[in-house]
Amino acid sequence: MFPIYLLEDDATQRSEYARIINNTIMINEYAMQLVAASDDPKKLLNQVDNPKRGLFFLDMEIGENRQAGLELASQLRQQYPFVQIVFITTHDELSFLTLERRIAPLDYILKDQDTDIIMQKIIKDINIVQKNLETEAHHHQELLGYKIGARFFSVPMADVIMLNTAKARPGCVVLTAKNKQVDFPGNLNAFEQKYPQLFRCDKSALINLDYISSYDYQNKEVTLMERIKCKVSFRKARELNKILKER
């Protein structure tokens, strides 16, 4: 889970910001978690468990210290140079200090704005981080992408077991992956062209060869992880047999 942290000394505002963060994560099904919401910079810093990842929403003024959030941000930037930092503050006059100290915040949200505007900016910042995570993931591993309505999703190709269609649901593709099964509008031809590492065993199924547990050549049937059985067309049977012998 990608960690998010919140520093805010006003209990009401802290609760509201935490609600916005948690709702955004839940509604969008992001692999994120609000790890800590605190009014104490030291306690918040002690809960940082990943030095390379994190999104920090920091109030600038904590108690009597007008620059407590700024000081924490400076410390974070020195210790964890790749984390994302967002200031939520009433002190717009301190924004120049973030440049002077080379903090490079993702955003600088002023509290004197309308509550809805603050909420939208928090949501926008979380979405930006999520988009960056998706881009990073594409660079490090290949993903299989699909769309449900207006929303895009992805799953690591290494987790994909198979894609198949069912006669009862024309125009629908069923994705079976490790710990996940979902169906969405689409067709196998498009996925076959885009992901050639998936093997077309017959007209209704694409399979990940890495998940084959057995292959009955005589009966033209392959068994995948989780005891999933797929028929193999006569035309594809010999090709699959040859591939498996060479692996």
How would you characterize this protein structure?
The protein is 36% helix and 33% strand. It is α/β, with parallel strands linked by helices and 247 residues long. Strands 2-1-3-4-5 form a five-stranded parallel beta sheet, sandwiched between helices. A five-stranded antiparallel beta sheet has the order 10-9-8-12-11. The longest helix has 26 residues.
Sequence-ordered SSE layout with sheet pairings:
Elements: E1 2-7, H1 11-28, E2 32-38, H2 41-46, E3 55-59, H3 68-79, E4 84-89, H4 95-100, E5 107-110, H5 115-140, E6 143-148, E7 151-156, E8 160-166, E9 169-177, E10 180-185, H6 188-194, E11 199-202, E12 205-207, E13 212-216, E14 221-224, E15 228-231, H7 234-246
Parallel strand pairs: 1-2, 1-3, 3-4, 4-5
Antiparallel strand pairs: 6-7, 8-9, 8-12, 9-10, 11-12, 13-14, 14-15
